[in-house]
Amino acid sequence: MYFVSTRSKDGDRFSASDAIMKGLAPDGGLFVPERIPQLPASFTMQHGYAYAAYEVLKPYFEGDEAESDLLTICEKAFNFPVSIHKNDGKDTLELYYGPTSAFKDFGARFLAYFMENKLKKTNEDLTVLVATSGDTGGAVASAFYNREHLRVKVLFPKDGVSDRQMRQLTCLDNNVEAFEVDGTFDDCQKMVKDAFMDESLKGLTSANSINLGRLLPQVVYYVWASFIYKARYKKEPIVIIPSGNVGNATGAFWAKAMGAPIKRIELALNANRTIVDYLDSGVYKPRRSCHTLANAMDVGAPSNMERLFDLFKTYDEFKANVSSHSVDDYKIRTTIKDTYDETGYVICPHTACAEYVRRTYYKDEPTIVVATAHPAKFESIVEPIIEKEVPIPENLYDMISRDCSYTQIGVNYKDLF
After folding, report:
1. What's this model's pTM, rounded to 2 decimal places?
2. Residues in the chain with pLDDT < 70?
3. Angle of the 329-343 helix axis to the 379-386 helix axis, nearest 10
4. Cα–Cα dist 119/84, whole Å
5. Do 296 and 372 form a contact (C-beta atoms < 8 A)?
6. Residue 19 has what pLDDT?
7. Which of 33, 81, 208, 324 is the most exposed, having the fewest neighbouring CB atoms within 10 Å of its CB?
8. What Rg, from alpha-carbon coordinates, does the chain have?
9. pLDDT tens string 10-69
């Protein structure tokens, strides 16, 4: 299996290991497989999640130097629960039982163990740059903390993350540095890309969802959840995903292309309507992001759209496969309240975007809503709405109790070095 750039499909071909370690293609594009492989005939969920992940990911590493280490990497990375909250076919995939209580733990931990495994063999050092709109930075900082041969620089927008998210980003030391950027998430993301394009800077890679090693693990839980759903209800679900930078959604589309039993994929956006507007008009216009209650989705120029445009090559093909709706802050609040009042189930603002879309557009359909973060990470929003304190998971409490340390900078990437 080889990987190519979204911007030059006839250009150089890279192994999975090379693509993951580089982070970004030499021409600034994103790595995609030359072809989407089909799920292996041997695929089984009987041996647990880590082994299922190995089976799903194995075709992407066919012939790769890491192929023989893949099962061990999966066992180290995916050592926490994956839960599906059952509700009569209106189920919720809970992806927040990892170390930082967010779905980003899946990709970040796989990437960290993969990179460490590779660098131990070559005795090389690497600096990881990561821009975050909320959960990515905390997950990457935790996953890479004290990993050998790796340093991490986390960029987060000033006033753009919740207090508890910020504490997760800034509570680690040693090989992890945090930078508060006087700008938006899009500014942070641009700084990372600009640094990669600076040929004077060596030994850099990315841990954002633009990195193939972050995206591939996100394919796994969509395969896992859709097979469980179909076995349980004898139907293929519509999967509704809170979407910001579109990496999580790309994982779902790749899972569907691999043969996962998914009927359709819906992207639930907040007030950052870039994808909705594209579907309505046929003209793709990235713009600056705006602040919302679902801050991890505050993205106006989603990077992984390059991968979706690669998968669906024309507007008509894109529109035939991708659905999207925008949810404003008022609807986020009312959905959190209505869900709790009716069922006692507590959801975060991001999950509320997907839940609103389900309640409004798919209330009689078989659905899985993707819960991307634990509601305790957004207590200042959720608790006043449900008028109840949200218990803090032990792992989250440990992180937010530590001292914080970060550096304030502008939007020039050179300030990182």
Report:
1. 0.91
2. 134
3. 50
4. 35
5. yes
6. 95
7. 81
8. 20
9. 789 999 999 999 888 989 899 999 999 999 888 889 999 999 999 999 999 999 999 999
